[in-house]
Amino acid sequence: MNRPIVLVHGAWHGSWCWDRVTPYLDAADVDWVAPDLPSVADAAGGANQSDDNAVVREALDGLPGTETAILLGHSRGGTVITEAGTHDRVGHLVYLAAFLGLENEDTMPYRSEGLNECLEFQSDGTVTVKPELGKAVFYNEHDESDFLWAQERLRSQSFKPFEDDSELAWQNKPSTYVVCRRDNALPVAGQRKMAARATQSIEWDTDHSPFVYRPELVATLLIGMSVTS
Fold first, then answer.
1. Distances in whole angstroms, Cα of residue 114 to Cα of each of 61, 94, 132, 186
2. 205-214: b or e for each residue (b if 16 or more CB lie within 10 Å)?
3. The pLDDT of residue 161 is above 80
4. Which of 83, 93, 77 is nearest to 208 (CA)?
5. Which among 79, 57, 87 has a CA at the least distance from the CA of 159?
6. Residue 162 pLDDT > 90
7. Among 69, 98, 119, 121, which residue has the least CB neighbours within 10 Å?
8. What's the whole-number mean pLDDT along residues 142-169?
């Protein structure tokens, strides 16, 4: 039986960001689930990383079969899988241009100036992406139609998730880090520093969001892990 896959989105995104990846998984007969994290879905309500971890753990609890799962986190989703990945059903962690941190490590050095400049802090405590800067940071290699598809789906993000500590699942579970060399959100040097902590790493010539304009890359990696592992 193929190993199931759990897809964890990053900040400002949602389960929608995997919509172009999952048809490939379906065609390969790979079970998958893509939860919506409360820190986005309920950003104004103050949902935090503990809420996100709980949702991912619930998704893992609900997986069919007994095979261990592949847990992928994109960007800020890396902080979620680092803690939720301690779940017994997780057999492999995948960090897609994601934060793979040490205990209490500050993520600021891993963020580009462009990422910091494109964020706007709201009076309700949430953070949004400035529309005029989002493409240059998150979707710089995308054509305009792909970018607009994603932009209209971006939502507010609760800032609380960035304040919580995480357990370090990657210290006890095998992991793969995917470095995105054309990423304008997380500079390559920082990604490679985090990738050195993983069991193995690969590099793609993509921007920060390959799941939108290069979904076949993401799907091929995951299907290979699911079917052959």
1. 38, 25, 12, 9
2. ebbbbbbbbb
3. no
4. 77
5. 79
6. no
7. 121
8. 85
Please say whether the beta carbons of 222 and 195 come within 8 A. Answer: no
Strands 90-96 and 126-129: what pairing? unpaired
Q: Which residues pair with 202 in a beta bridge?
A: 178
User: What span, in angstroms and rounded, lies between the C-alpha atoms of 120 and 175?
Assistant: 33
Give the pLDDT of residue 166. 59
CATH of residue 117:
3.40.50.1820
Q: How far apart are CA 65 and CA 184, in angstroms?
A: 39
DSSP secondary structure code for residue 102 in this structure: -
Number of domains in the chain: 1
Query: What is the C-alpha to C-alpha distance for residues 197 and 27, in angstroms, rounded to an integer?
Result: 33
DSSP for 46-70 reads: T--HHHHHHHHHHHHHT-SSSSPEE
Distance from C-alpha of 177 to C-alpha of 63, rounded to nearest angstrom: 24
- Residue 54 reports pLDDT greater than 60: yes
pTM of the model: 0.95
Domain of 172 in residue numbering reads as 5-228
pLDDT at res. 28: 97
| Residues across the chain | 229
Q: What is the pLDDT of residues 123-153, one digit of tens each?
A: 888 999 998 999 999 999 999 999 999 999 9
Q: Provide the token pair at 27.
A: 């065609």
Distance CA 179, CA 192 (A): 7
